[in-house]
Amino acid sequence: MQLAVLIGLFSLLMICRVPIAFAIAAACLTTIWIFQGPTMIEFVMVPVMFHGIESFLLAAVPLFLVMGMLMDRGGASEVLFSFANSWLRHIPGGLGIATVGICGVFAALCGSSPASAASVGSASIGPMIARGYPNRFTYGLIAAGGTLGILIPPSISMVVYSAITGESVSRLFIAGVVPGLMFIVAFAIYTYVRALRGDTAVEPRATWRERGRSTLHALGPLFLPPAILGGIYLGIFTPTESAAVGVFIALVLGLFVHRELNFVELPDIFSRAARTTCMILMIIAAASVFSHLITLMRVPQTIAGFVAEAGVPSVYFWAVIVLLCGVLGCFLEAAAILYLVVPVVAPVLPVLNVDPAHFAVVVVVLIELGMITPPLGLNIFVIQGLRREATTTDVAVGTFPFMLILLVGAGTLAAFPQISLMLPNYLGD
Question: Is 83 inside a domain boundary?
Answer without folding.
Answer: yes
